[in-house]
Amino acid sequence: MMDTRPPLAAARDAISAARRIVIFTGAGMSAESGVPTFRDALTGLWARFSAEALATPEAFARDPELVWGWYEWRRARVRAAQPNAGHRAIAEFAARRAAEGSGGVTVVTQNVDDLHERAGGPAAVHLHGSLFAPRCGACGAPGAFATVEPVEPEGGRRLAPPRCEQCGGALRPGVVWFGEGLPEAAWSAASQAMDSCDLVLCVGTSALVYPAAALPEQALRAGAMLLQVNPGHTAFDALARFNLKGSAATVLPALLCGNH
Ligand code: BV8
Ligand code: ZN
To answer: I want to staple 67 with a disulfide (CB 3.0 to 4.6 A). Which of 60, 101, 153, 259 is the partner?
Structure first.
């Protein structure tokens, strides 16, 4: 029988009926906080590179100061950014369901910013690491930032990575680069959440990067329903029960908190 309810109302009903929900987020989640997505062209010193080319061990080995400068510029941008209404809606939704005892909410993010946490939401599972957890490239010890970089609009300074206090090696960003494996603990937490949820809400991801992009399909195979919030088209369009074509900061407050 044809579902005649407006998609948003039907999606809200599906969310209310779900016992265990995973919210799977990508760079589009932070776009309205002013944090560039991976699809956005790079600027300044990095304009001649693609993010995919810079986010690799090879790029860092070839020019550590260029790559460390890029990550420090991104970290300064994130520090200057604020969580948007979408981050806040997720935080409020998770808190409400916890208070009502109406089922768990797990946030699994591909993002390396800390905006989910700063919105007060549940600590997200970070599949691709964090801008705020540098580590030694030689001995793996956690590292400390040497300076607090100013926010430069276009970005564009080469910066030497600080030295490890344990062994003197160069620090590296605490993110997962292309060609690197994902952190075991994060992967297994995300995988278990996908296998045990009955609804996965995908927000602001192009669904292009693996193995992360395989996780929502894993939830589908385990019997979950997939919902998507994205102004654009992605491979998840064909898998989604409801495709809400809009931005995170406008759709999520209406979808999760009833704020129209
Ligand atoms: C691995 C951290 C094996 C870094 C990221 C050749 C060589 C090597 C590997 C490969 C290869 N070919 C394929 C691969 C695999 C590769 C891959 O998938 N490549 C892709 C490009 C084809 N994957 C890997 O390399 C992974 N590792 O395979 O290792 C291995 C295994 C075991 C042991 C050793 C090795 C590692 C991948 C992780 C890379 N790191 N981030 C950093 O941040 O600098 S990935 C990065 O890009 C993001 O984290 C994210 O995951 C990914 C894509 O970004 P999205 O989040 O989807 O955002 P995107 O910009 O793409 O799109 C934005 C979306 O938002 C759009 O849909 C847009 O419409 C929407 N949007 C915009 N505005 C809004 C919005 N939505 C809502 N509201 C809005 N306002
Ligand atoms: Zn070290």
So the answer is: 60
Question: pLDDT for 214-236, tens place per residue?
Answer: 999 999 999 999 999 999 999 99
pTM over 0.85: yes
Ligand 1 site-directed mutation target among 178, 215, 256, most atoms within 8 Å of CB? 178
- 92 touches 127 (CB < 8 A): no
Would you list the DSSP string of the chain?
----S-HHHHHHHHHHH-SSEEEEE-THHHHTTTPPPTTSPP-GGGTTS-HHHHSSHHHHHH-HHHHHHHHHHHHHHHHH----HHHHHHHHHHHHHHHHT---EEEEE---S-HHHHTT-PPPEETTB-TT--EETTT--B---S--PPP-SS-----PPPBPTTT-PBEE-SBPPTTSPPPHHHHHHHHHHHHH-SEEEEES--S-STTTTHHHHHHHHTT-EEEEE-SS--GGGGT-SEEE-S-HHHHHHHHHH---
- The minimum-distance atom of ligand 1 relative to the CA of 32 is 80
Angle at 245 between CA 122 and CA 109, to 5 degrees: 25
Q: Give the pLDDT confidence score for residue 134 in this predicted structure.
A: 97
Enter the tokens of residue 93.
């939704």
